[in-house]
Amino acid sequence: MPAALSVVRLSTTPIKGLALAHPSSIELTTHGAVGDRQFFLIDEEEGRLQSCTANAELLPLAARFDPDSRRLEVVRGDEVLCAGTVDSAGAIDTDMWGLRTLVADVVAGPQWSTFFSDLLGKRVRLVQARQSAYDVHPATILGSSSVAELARRSGLASVDPRRFRMLIEFSGGTPHLEDSWGGTLLRIGGAVLRGGGPVKRCAATTRDPASGAVDLQTLRLITAYRGRRESELGAGATFGRYCEVLEPGTVAVGDCLRVG
């Protein structure tokens, strides 16, 4: 009898590109997990989205946001590096990798642009998405067996699944089982999802999720045994799957994942 599938990790972050938190549960909506990737950075000159792919300095930092008080904090360990109440300084449209336009609000207050500009060595602004600044689709999913298979094929003892920054990680099943879920209904906790296309991986996965240092050639290792595969973002190293959320609900660690 096939092993049961269940949620083993959830990964979110209030500011896109910063260190992930791993809550015991999330409220999943048609626009993604509540509070996940609510803020993001753009460069001041062209308004281009910034990520940890080219900004390794973001990964050692974490963010905390209280939606009731609207207080946002950026921390390193127990040290609060920048904090304040979030207010809007006007709306702005952001291009999300050429796939959609995201309406967001520039966060008021010079401390935010100064802090992140000094950190990254270029002029950037912090903005708040009115929904969620997910990349392509509102949810992503990856099997622990797939990560273990990548390690085995690469001759490694293990690979840290956090480097893939997936919203939902599940255990059970064969390696790359999620590859077969295109168009398939997935019932997880109180939510119903539909499997989308494969996730094309970028160089962010080569970075250690704690330090930001490039320490593993994940793209080369993935394509070495899986080849280059087509995705919505073109051909490349694909690993994991996008999902649409058909029915919002609570998803928690330990919830069963039912296919079909």
From TrEMBL:
Q: What Pfam families does this protein's entry cite?
A: MOSC (PF03473), MOSC_N (PF03476)
Please provide, alphabetically and separated by semicolons, the GO molecular function terms listed in this UniProt record: catalytic activity; molybdenum ion binding; pyridoxal phosphate binding
Domain MOSC as annotated: residue spans: 105-260
Q: Name the domain of life this protein comes from.
A: Bacteria
Q: What is this protein called?
A: MOSC domain-containing protein
From which lineage does this chain's organism come?
Answer: Bacteria, Bacillati, Actinomycetota, Actinomycetes, Geodermatophilales
